Amino acid sequence: MSTQDFSKELKNQTNEDLIKALGDPKLSPMAKELIGKELEERMNAKGPEEAGGGGEGEGEGDDLKKLLKKLQDGTISSEEIKKLSSLLGVDEATLEKAKGKGGSGPEGEGDILGG
């Protein structure tokens, strides 16, 4: 399937479907990037008033990119999952399932054992 076909296919899927796809360890990095772009475009299309007010500084799209990256890396906090859930309108449990493809726990924890 070409990149263009894949992008068209993404437009027909719900945010929840896209998040579930992000959690698939077999998904290529290119496909993950395209899914991230699709979600970002959807956020930008909503407009600032719907996305939580037109504050200053970074836009919601930048926030979304960072949160999606953390979700994929498995480094997202529960607070960030709540924020991402509200941004995308996706259930927190769905985000938890899609979170990272790493090992049994959050990376970076438990590295320093003993004393």
Overview of this structure, please?
Residues 42-65, 93-115 are annotated as: Disordered. Residues 101-115 have a biased composition (Gly residues). This protein is mainly α and 115 residues long. It has one domain. Helices cover 58% and strands 0% of the residues. The protein is built from six helices and no strands. The protein has helices at residues 3-11, 15-22, 29-46, 60-73, 78-88, 92-98. The longest helix has 18 residues, at 29-46. The protein is globular. Mean pLDDT is 78; it is low at 49-57 and 102-115.
Number of domains: 1
Specify the oligomeric state.
single chain
What structural category do the secondary elements indicate? mainly alpha
Order of helices and strands: HHHHHH
Nearest-angstrom radius of gyration? 15 Å
Distance between the termini: 53 Å
Please bin the fraction of helical residues: 55-70%
Strand segment count: 0
General shape: globular
Stretches where pLDDT is under 50 for at least 5 consecutive residues are: 49-57, 102-115
Write down the overall mean pLDDT: 78
Number of helices: 6
Main sheet?
none
Fraction in beta strands:
under 5%
Region (Disordered): 42-65, 93-115
Biased composition (Gly residues): 101-115
